[in-house]
Amino acid sequence: MKITSIKYDQFKGEPAEWQLDRTDFGDINLLVGKNASGKSRAMNVIVSLSRLLSSEVRPMFISGTYFATFSDKDSSFSYEIAIRKNKVAFELFKRNDEILLSREESGKCSIRAEQLNTTIDSQIPTDIVAAYSRRDAIQHPFLDHLFLWASTLKYFPFGTSMGKDHFLTIGTFESIVTSSSSNGSGASDEVTVDRLAAHDVSQLYARAYGFYGDEFDKQILKGLCNLGYDCTDIRLANADAVLFPGAGGLTALYLTEKNVSAAVSQFDMSQGMFRALSLIIHINVILFQRKSRTVIIDDIGEGLDFSRSKQFISLLIDRSQAAEIQLIMTTNDRFIMNGVSLEYWSVLSRHGSSVKTINKKNSPQVFSDFDDLGLNNFDFFSNNFFDEEYKEQITA
Amino acid sequence: MKKIAVFVEGQTEQIFIKKLFTEIAGAKHIDFNVEKISNAVFLKQSNQPDGNNARIFASIIDCSNDSKVTAAIIDNHASLKKSGYELVLGLRDLYPKPLADLQRISRLANSRVPTAGLPAKIHLAVMEVEAWFLLEYKHYCVISEHLTEQIASTISGFDIKTGSPEAAAHPSETLSKIYNTVGMGYKKTRNQVERTVTAMDYENLYFDVRSRAKHFDDLISSFEDFLA
Lengths: 396, 228
Description:
A: 2 domains; 14-stranded mixed β-sheet; B: alpha/beta
């Protein structure tokens, strides 16, 4: 299942009001916008919705209403949840036009029971999300669709260290190696792997190498080579030599570059190179798992030079399309924008506390007019072409 | 020395413009600087040494790798002006846009081009530059002795000796089909483009094709005005 749109508001009518107008998604998506336009916040909305639906957290917002639509091969779904003062005020889940779950502020919930072929009522605690807590593969299998989407969603804040400053203890490393060699398969550990965050890249690498062996390394090195990092070896090893005195008992990722005798540790790698390595490891784990899912990458391209940005984005799109991964990225990097077709673009602009989205679906003429100008994609963004007044002035 | 810069969509246009300008200006009177924009950097493809006191210097820049013609002109207009260029031209294909959009695109294409201190103009090839190759009927027998104008007209679906370039919806594909009849191809590789560009009769292009192809006439006129 993939997410096809999201709409969100919080603190409606209050000074802290903020709202994201309906934003549509396809298989590949690039959200662009100026600083403080709401790109990262929009991503946080999707991530927080996924956490509510996979129960990693209880409702975290004092006030907030999500409306999201989803689709799979056979059906479309819509899910709406309103949270007020840490309590769930409303929930509604539909398949096409059929109501599958509805829930009131009191906690009274009506839910479709498939095997019983009826609707049953129940009362649930007001701080619990019904779509998560009422999961039942026999009576309510439709809720598993939502849960699967939410629990497998991956979020990578590319503008952060992406794990460069996170090291794996030797104890954890050894227990992963022992468990991999006795288990011989990664299948039972996929849930653990799915829960690893972007900064847990050392642990992820250790687990993935345990599951997939040398073929995993081969794909990592191939990915790096595609970006112009010609490396011959990757490994996790004792980090005593590169960390500060007394920081014993830690391991770090090391890369060996072609024609360079000494391996470079994650500590000594440039931030850009490490971000690229980290994301390549994460994406390859997803590809090896062969599970379709939604992947969010915030600030893609940050810290990479123009050549690598362009190659990276092309690699990500190709791999995602081949593996049926829904890719949602944000950027304000010129080379990333020029490397991604306008077909995949959504431009976010903030007007006060409201964030609006322009894309080819809701404004086809704007995109068509721009295409006729013969400018680079970045110019669409930098010239405010999505601004109606500007567009009228140019095309008049 | 007068300097002109021409930004083109790809290798085909770059090869053709170089040959066309050479034929119009005369080989002894023009030097070329042939470049390609890649990763925002100009990569020199070839450079004729400035040793023959040519009065024209033409930079022909292929934007295909990472930019679009109009955007490349905007990005480089100031530095070209500073370097003493006197004219900037751009050459864009209309394809894959429909013919019905021609007027609108022609107007829009020039609406953003900077002209202060250095004239610049975008020219359109309708639908592609290969439409002009298609109409140059004398080159077919040079490509192959078995390739006749009759075959070319039959495959094109119109008389290539009298028709207009707008008659071919996808000219490079039509050219490929024509060449295919004698076991030859046209997939825009450097060798294939050079073979066609070399085979064409430039007198025929200059007089006959020009009279039937308005946008080709516009392009040549811009260059001739510059030469004058």
